[in-house]
Amino acid sequence: MPDPESSQTLESLLNVVEKFPPPKKLKEQAWVKSNKIYEKAKRDPEGFWAEAAEILDWFKPWSKVLKWDPPDSRWFIGGKINASYNCLDRHVKTWRRNKVAIFWEGEPGDRRVLTYSDLYREVNRFANVLKKMGLKEGDRATLYLPMIPELPIAMLACTRIGVIHSVVFAGYSAKALQERLRNAEARLLITANHGYRRGKKIPLKKNADEALQDAPTVEKVIVYQRSDELTPMKNGRDFWWHELMQTVPPKCDPKPLDSETPLFTLYTSGTTGKPKGIVHVNGGYLVGTAITQKWVFDLKDEDVYWCTADIGWITGHSYIVYGPLAIGATEVMYEGAPDYPQPDRFWEIVERYGVTIFYTAPTAIRAFMKWGEEWPKKHDLSSIRLLGSVGEPINPQAWLWYRSTIGGGKCQIVDTWWQTETGMILITPLPGVTVLKPGSATLPFPGIEADVVDEKGNPVPPDRGGFLVIKNPWPAMLKTLYRDPERYRRTYWTQIPGAYFTGDGARKDKDGYFWIMGRIDDVMNVSGHRLGTMEVESAIVSHPFVAEAAVVGKPHPVKGQSITAYVMLRRGVKPAEGLKDDLKKQVRKEIGPIAVPDEIYVVEKLPKTRSGKIMRRVIRALISGQELGDITTLEDPSAVEEVRKWLKTVE
Ligand code: WTA
Fold first, then answer.
1. Cα(602) to centroid of ligand 1, in Å?
2. Ligand 1 center–CA 109 separation, angstroms
3. Looking at ligand 1, which residue's alpha carbon is closest to its atom 13?
4. Where in the chain are the domains?
5. Which CATH entry fits the domain spanning 523-650: 1.10.101.10, 3.30.40.10, 3.30.300.30, 2.30.30.50?
6. Which residue's alpha carbon is nearest to atom 24 within ligand 1?
7. pLDDT of residue 212
8. In this structure, which residue's CA is closest to atom 20 in ligand 1?
9. What is the pLDDT of residue 353?
10. Measured from the CA of 530, which atom of ligand 1 is nearest?
11. Class in CATH terms, 17-82+261-449+464-495
């Protein structure tokens, strides 16, 4: 077993590390037992997806699987469907009605168990609350809630009547919430008075009040009472969740919606300052998440599944809410931090509920490694039968540690590559068939054509770095960017001819396995959270002393990347004491604590190209000590020298 702390390179590790074929038992009982499925999907992708769509209940069948007019796709044309019907009604009509849907645990230790019938009742009532508030199909509701059952309840209630939800991560600041409320032109905001994080109360309602000072489209606010502290409520605008729920009838019929109508928008970071409102629609998104949930996690009715993500991100949308509930799974949902009150909180939860499938992020795995084996060792984790990873490349050391320490040396790991935009997992093992190589997300899901290409779109030879692209449409693909179809086209469909541009660098080995190398654009991945350099730079530059800023992600042993900011002050301004702290505060206020830079350097000038662009990519490559081969050969070589000189003066 390699020493997890050692700094062996990927290559050298790969030479010593074995491959992991699926154990016999898993292979025998898995949903997908044979790799013939890949050929089948390749021969007839539309037929394959049509069959996949049978996993759902449709009010009206579609007449055509796909209309592909790049970059516009339409899936399951003419079909009528409802997400909340698929996640609830169809289960309560069967033996699953009293099956546990969610084992919920709050950070302070409070617990709730919700069966499918319980969820069904809550969602029906809350859908009637939304109606009572005057919301109708196509309206937008923004949800700024902690990880409590009311978050999926509110989401499903929206989908029941065709209201488009936009969930904003509860760790975002008032300012970030405001921007998202304004962009979505939300009529309603749903929040809680507080959330909990590492024992502290997060004042969500207070943030919401601040955001609402300039979010004119919002007419009403529904507040869930998470703590009994006094909460100022604005008369006529603010309503308590529990009071409204008592005033509405218990049943609300699910509305049959066209498969192409928007289900939700979710904001994610791009290379420019403004977050992008990714739009997903009812039919295709639900098909994609349901089928991957079932096959990639090999999820059975007996399983207890736990995805540790926050629903504020896409992973939580697809693999806590829509995927698991659509297929009637039992899952765990946890509100708080993994190390509260102690670093074994996750393992205590695994033991308590007998979790069988555990899905988390490499940044968390690296934190567990740092905290030490003694914490997982305190608990019986033998119920776990399958592990998953998502959010960033997992280094082989962490992969091996995860398998041995959490998986008891017996579990396969599904390293799943995908994005907010892709909606569903696209590159991943199928646990019953794929031979694993630690550190590789392995192969495209059946029906998906991925490749690694140069800037002209030509495939690069095996083991050479290039751009990761997807060459054919898939059901859960983003429809567009909210109110900005032109930016949608430009961002994803013009960079590489004839393909969807992921923004990731990758290489494919001789067996066709994909090795994701991380972002090649100006997007950072901090603790699994996607942040644009421009967003952070704009926050810094809004400080009156700052003229310009360049922000880059730098490798970090636990977070994946940490943020380093280079700041140029306005003429005449001297770097005063406390300035760096002020800048950090500024970022916290504008975006939230996740975006605060670890290091800030005040510099005389920033390295720029002749056209005036800051050379972030080169700075990033050089401070990472990255080999300037592969991806970075795409840089202008003289720029590399410039930045090298500049970095010396900074240090
Ligand atoms: C990265 C999260 C390597 C990648 C679902 C992608 C990964 C970005 C993996 C999307 C993985 C996600 N291996 N890198 N298994 N999964 N990524 O939109 O850079 O928050 O482009 O979606 O995360 O981040 P997002």
1. 31
2. 31
3. 393
4. 17-82+261-449+464-495, 83-255, 523-650
5. 3.30.300.30
6. 419
7. 98
8. 530
9. 98
10. 20
11. alpha beta
Summarize the confidence of residues 426-442 as an average pLDDT.
97
Pairing of strands 386-390, 412-416: parallel
Amino acid at the residue 281: V
Show contacts of 571-576: CB within 8 Å, 24+ apart.
571/547, 573/545, 575/602, 576/545
C-alpha–C-alpha distance, residues 284 and 282, integer Å: 6
Q: What is the mean pLDDT of residues 43-65?
A: 98
pLDDT tens sequence across 576-615: 889 999 999 999 999 999 999 999 999 888 887 766 778 7
- The 10s digit of each residue's pLDDT in 401-420 is 999 999 999 999 999 999 99
CA–CA separation, 162 and 184 (whole Å): 15
**Considering the chain, what percentage of its residues have pLDDT values greater than 70?**
95
Asked if residue 504 has its Cβ within 6 Å of ligand 1, the reply is yes
- Tell me which residue has tokens 């796909």: 66
Residue 629's pLDDT is 47
CATH architecture of 83-255: 3-Layer(aba) Sandwich (3.40)
Q: Which residue has the tokens 């969820």?
A: 119
Contacts of residue 36, defined as CB under 8 A and 6 or more positions apart, other chains included, come to none
Beta carbons of 46 and 65 less than 8 angstroms apart = yes
